[in-house]
Amino acid sequence: MPSRTAPRRRPRLRHVCVAAGLAAAACLTTLQPAGAATADGDRDLHRRLDRLVATPGGPPGVIAVLRDEKGSRVLRSGTADLATGRPPGAGDHMRVASVAKAYSGAVALSLVDRGVLGLDDTLRDRLPRLPAAWGKVTLRQLLNHTSGLPDYTEAPGFIAAVTADPHHHFDSRRLLDYVAGDPLRFRPGSSYRYSNSDNIAVALMAEQATGSPYERLLRSLVYRPLALRDTSLPQGYRLPSPYLHGYDVTPPAAPEDISEVLSASGVWASGGIVSTPADLNRFVRAYAGGALFGDRTVREQRRWREGASEPAGPGRNEAGLALFRYTTRCGVVLGHTGNFPGYTQFAAATPDGRRAITFSITTQTNKTQKPELLRQLRAVQEDFVCALLRRKA
């Protein structure tokens, strides 16, 4: 088991992503309200989780929280910690990865709803220190990834800094400096390209408009209204206990615990949020269900266009404002996905917010790393969405 003060060896980093893979035996536990019986459909879902964990390159652990009018169901397989065998829990902390972009969307759209920010506000007006060539980019374009901003996480200088010292403490508010000399990828609004730079700029615009740090805005506009007591945006690399351990498991090497290998300061508003499956489920019900702002803002948020989250979620993906629509064979849910060294996340809810799902695995997968595992993961996620939508109220 690696030390909590330092990784046991130099992590196998490649462009800030960690290759992951595992073949592991599954352990299975289900949590339900007292006196509830396991439904026949849940047994099939359990088997899907078991197969996912046992797949070569699959995650050491997986936990799904399904919430509907009857309450919450927690289904899990594998382990939260290979050193102890402890099963995953709904109160375990974890990195939510790019689902953090939904939190920056929640802050920005709450300010739009209050008239503090406007969706057509530009970088030139709000953040004049940024390159003049980026000046016409609007808040709307940042939120739906049509800004054309170059992605700072792909910049050679940023990659070199992370590779040299994964615990390096970045000035989160200067992350866009790594691409300040780069032109826009395309004319703003003319195309879609997922970029981590977008949500850094969103948080900076929110700070400029209010004069308050982004972390304080999260507390006042998101955490406190939703009673999110186990959600935070750290600057360091530590995780609060207990937590889901995230792994790089590249056979034939032994699994490597990389839960605390990277400083969250390098992803900040784009991917640095730490939460729990229970808190994340509560957040996505309110956010995707439109409970944080009025109908007019919700309508703007749900103007869909072609575009997928990263990694892609189940079914057909379309992009809104810091929100994605996933059209599955059983119906539609709205939410966000994310991946980070050691973690892959999916959080979504029905458009009315009455039903929600969070699905967390403890290894990283995306279209460039383990595309076959991603294909299997999306299929399992769709099965869980179907179980969520089909259950009778």
Quickly describe the structure.
The protein has 393 residues and is α+β, with helices and mostly antiparallel strands. The chain has helices at residues 40-54, 100-113, 123-126, 139-143, 156-164, 196-210, 214-226, 268-271, 277-288, 295-301, 371-390, and strands at 13-14, 17-18, 28-31, 61-68, 71-78, 94-95, 247-248, 256-257, 274-275, 305-306, 316-319, 324-328, 331-340, 343-349, 356-361.
Give the distance, in angstroms, between the N- and C-terminal Cα atoms.
44 Å
The helix content, as a percent range, equals 25-40%
Order of helices and strands: EEEHEEEHHHHHHEEHEHHEEEEEEH
Low confidence ranges: 1-38
DSSP summary, beta strand count? 15
The rough form would be described as globular
The pLDDT mean sits at: 91
Report on the biggest sheet: 9 strands, antiparallel
Structural class based on helices, strands and sheet pairing: alpha+beta
User: In which order are the strands of the major sheet placed?
Assistant: 3-5-4-15-14-13-12-11-10
Fold and architecture overview:
Helices cover 30% and strands 17% of the residues. The chain has a 9-stranded antiparallel beta sheet with strand order 3-5-4-15-14-13-12-11-10, with helices on both faces. Strands 1-2 form a two-stranded antiparallel sheet. A two-stranded antiparallel sheet has the order 6-9. Helix 1 (40-54) runs antiparallel to helix 11 and helix 2 packs parallel to helix 6. It is an alpha+beta fold and 393 residues long. The protein has helices at residues 40-54, 100-113, 123-126, 139-143, 156-164, 196-210, 214-226, 268-271, 277-288, 295-301, 371-390; strands spanning 13-14, 17-18, 28-31, 61-68, 71-78, 94-95, 247-248, 256-257, 274-275, 305-306, 316-319, 324-328, 331-340, 343-349, 356-361. The relative contact order is 0.19.
